[in-house]
């Protein structure tokens, strides 16, 4: 801005730039057409060349995946939007300090995460520069937490790092839903570089899962997000661990706006919680728990500590996290609310669920994410939703054996509901009641309407 101000001072606000030649006669165009001093540096690189440059200064491990691979096919649209010429994904591992992540002091663990993210983004810039110098186009979407909040509550990330890492041979998904590297275990952060550079070889997935099935992550998770059978309750993890991200922040703001005065607001949030939110806003977001990572013994570098003395591993690493005095954030009528009562030293706080649903498609995608298996015990039914209006589509939701499926059809339909997409969104946001919808004939049904009540019980 200072530079522009001085230009205006010197030349005046009405300065005119005169161009006396056509583009075909421009010196730069003539130089490019003549090929003088310009060489085509873009030729396929080898994985060895990339590793030789990147490791160990800029990466602890990396792998290469073509966007034509089946494992990443569902991401191609988003990848091409970011870089239309994209042909290859480079997955990169950045090692974390296990001792920092294991600390019951959240400041130590969070500082390790945030510094690693910053370093990862900086290191990726060096690799991107290397690719550009070899004639390629390349970009590096953010490592760590997604940033495309214009799409919230939909997809907020450019590329999903985890499936790319699996395809690139950098590990397999553990039941704690972290990528487990065969050497570093889950003590890693991931980055993905998108480029049009072609490579003479690709990476392939490893042929085993580093997860040893110890279930320590199940034991340590204070809100029960991970089940012994390997299922994962995303909404439970989102509500507690990310309480000062997205949904939790929206709830905090909504509480401020709707409180009559500071006294009423103080009944919802303590000074400590406000200070923690301020810290997240002014410094970096505060993860409430990474216990599933902290206790995981997977990986060649990590496993010896666990195998040498499992009792000490439990006493020194697992127990301090389980016994820690802290507040657990859970949704009302959720499986987490039941699970959290098992921890005597932890205070349970019910937080409101502000339904950030912008359309019916978002609602349908969110059903498996926010489904509460324990709350669905004994239910067995299929509901056919026929949405009309702005979003005309039909889907069948089946709840059976404490699982949920969203399909196009089902052999047996226990309840069929017809409603406009706009009215359904008002209903789930509690802006209009069921009786009013029925009275105004905005909701029509065939079958047992009681299944709709059971359906509602499966979600917090």
Describe the 3D structure.
With 460 residues, the chain is of the alpha+beta class. The protein has four domains: 2-33, no CATH class; 47-195, no CATH class; 216-351, no CATH class; 360-457, 2-Layer Sandwich (Nonspecific Lipid-transfer Protein, Chain A), CATH 3.30.1050.10. Helix content is 39%, strand content 16%. It contains 20 helices and 13 strands. The chain has helices spanning 2-11, 27-34, 47-54, 76-82, 98-102, 106-133, 161-167, 216-220, 234-241, 246-258, 262-266, 271-282, 291-294, 303-308, 310-323, 335-340, 360-370, 421-428, 434-439, 450-457; strands at residues 61-66, 88-95, 138-139, 172-173, 179-180, 188-195, 326-331, 346-351, 380-388, 393-400, 403-407, 415-420, 443-447. The strands form four sheets. Strands 11-10-9-12-13 form a five-stranded mixed sheet. The longest helix is centred in the first third of the chain and has 28 residues, at 106-133. The two termini are 50 Å apart.
Entry summary:
The protein is of the alpha+beta class.
How many E strands? Answer: 13
Give unreliable regions as ranges: none
User: How many individual domains?
Assistant: 4
Strand order across the biggest sheet? 11-10-9-12-13
Q: How large is the radius of gyration?
A: 27 Å
Shape: globular
Could you outline the blueprint of secondary structure elements for this entry?
Elements: H1 2-11, H2 27-34, H3 47-54, E1 61-66, H4 76-82, E2 88-95, H5 98-102, H6 106-133, E3 138-139, H7 161-167, E4 172-173, E5 179-180, E6 188-195, H8 216-220, H9 234-241, H10 246-258, H11 262-266, H12 271-282, H13 291-294, H14 303-308, H15 310-323, E7 326-331, H16 335-340, E8 346-351, H17 360-370, E9 380-388, E10 393-400, E11 403-407, E12 415-420, H18 421-428, H19 434-439, E13 443-447, H20 450-457
Parallel strand pairs: 7-8, 9-12
Antiparallel strand pairs: 1-2, 2-6, 3-6, 4-5, 9-10, 10-11, 12-13
């Amino acid at each position: 801005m200072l530079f522009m101000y001085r230009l205006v001072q010197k030349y005046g606000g009405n300065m005119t730039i005169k161009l006396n030649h056509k583009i075909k006669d421009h010196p730069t165009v003539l130089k490019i057409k003549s090929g003088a001093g310009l060489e085509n540096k873009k030729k396929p690189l080898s994985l060895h060349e990339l590793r030789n440059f990147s490791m160990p200064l800029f990466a602890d491990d990396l792998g290469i995946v073509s966007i034509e691979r089946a494992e990443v096919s569902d991401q191609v649209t988003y990848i091409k939007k970011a870089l239309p010429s994209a042909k290859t994904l480079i997955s990169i591992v950045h090692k974390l300090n296990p001792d920092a992540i294991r600390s019951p002091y959240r400041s130590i663990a969070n500082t390790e995460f945030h510094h690693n993210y910053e370093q990862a983004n900086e290191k990726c810039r060096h690799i991107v520069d290397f690719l550009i110098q070899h004639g390629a186009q390349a970009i590096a979407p953010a490592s760590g937490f997604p940033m495309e909040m214009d799409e919230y509550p939909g997809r907020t990330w450019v590329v999903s790092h985890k499936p790319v890492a699996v395809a690139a041979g950098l590990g397999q998904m553990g039941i704690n839903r972290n990528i487990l590297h065969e050497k570093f275990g889950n003590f890693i952060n991931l980055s993905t570089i998108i480029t049009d550079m072609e490579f003479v070889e690709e990476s392939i997935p490893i042929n085993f899962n580093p997860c040893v099935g110890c279930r320590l992550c199940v034991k340590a998770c204070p809100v029960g997000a991970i089940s012994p059978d390997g299922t994962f309750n995303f909404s439970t993890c989102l509500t507690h661990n990310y309480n000062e991200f997205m949904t939790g922040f929206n709830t905090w703001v909504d509480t401020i706006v709707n409180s009559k005065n500071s006294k009423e607001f103080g009944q919802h949030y303590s000074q400590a919680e406000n200070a923690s939110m301020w810290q997240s806003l002014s410094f970096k977001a505060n993860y409430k728990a990474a216990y599933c990572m902290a206790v995981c013994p997977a990986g060649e570098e990590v496993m010896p500590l666990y195998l040498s003395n499992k009792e000490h591993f439990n006493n020194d690493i697992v127990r301090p996290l389980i016994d820690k005095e802290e507040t657990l954030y859970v949704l009302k009528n959720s499986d987490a609310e039941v699970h959290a009562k098992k921890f005597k030293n932890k205070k349970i706080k019910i937080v409101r669920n502000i339904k950030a649903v912008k359309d019916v498609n978002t609602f349908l995608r969110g059903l498996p994410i926010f489904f509460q298996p324990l709350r669905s015990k004994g239910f067995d039914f299929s509901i056919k939703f026929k949405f009309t209006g702005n979003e005309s589509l039909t889907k069948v939701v089946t709840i059976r054996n404490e699982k949920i499926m969203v399909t196009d059809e089902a052999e047996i339909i226990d309840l069929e509901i017809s409603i406009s997409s706009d009215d359904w969104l008002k209903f789930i946001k509690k802006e209009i009641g069921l009786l009013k919808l029925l009275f105004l004939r905005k909701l029509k049904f065939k079958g047992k309407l009681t299944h709709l009540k059971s359906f509602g019980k499966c979600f917090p």
